[in-house]
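Protocol step 4 of 5: obtain the predicted structure for the target chain.
Materials: sequence only (see below). No template structures provided, no constraints applied. The aim of this step is simply to have a reference model before the mutagenesis design in step 5. Sequence pasted as it appears in the construct record:
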Amino acid sequence: MTEVYLRGLSRWQAEQQRDAVADVHVTAYDGVAGAEYRDRQGFLRRFEQHVQQPGFDMTVADAGGLVGCAYGFRLARTGEWWSGFRGDLPKEIEELAVSGRTFRLAGLMVLPAHRRQGIATRLSERLLFRLGADLVVAAVERPEGYTRENAAASTLRAWGWSKLGELGPGASTPGRETAVRDVWIRRPLR
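Step 4 output (structure tokens):
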């Protein structure tokens, strides 16, 4: 088995690696046949926007080539990300959301051949350990009417994240219609 090394990337390095990251995305989220190009292009557009966000941070897993990554950014103090939140946002979370000390885990992916080796856990722990955030949030897509947890939600739960609620379709990602997204939260590792 090939040794997997983790390393952080600067914003500039992440931009330079965008095609390799997109390759990992397409393979990790192997979508509907024939949709790969659209999925890749859509991911590249989102990734370009994400890299420009304040506090962008990224950790990659390398085993003679990129095999996974985790990345995210600080959420704006205005709390726009929460605009599609369904229900009442708890006051403590609302205060953290506008404090500028909330980090969004925007992407976590590992190639299928490298799964079940603890790489995703290592990626997320390394990324979150370096943060100066008081709260970390993630949004996991859930098709409308779907009642069972998907693999991403099950993984977050196993890692000690808590489900806070949900964002409506299209929320948190302007210009991109999505399914309902479950919002998960966690205090960062220190």
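Step 4 remarks: The mean pLDDT is 82. The longest helix spans residues 36-51.
Proceed to step 5.
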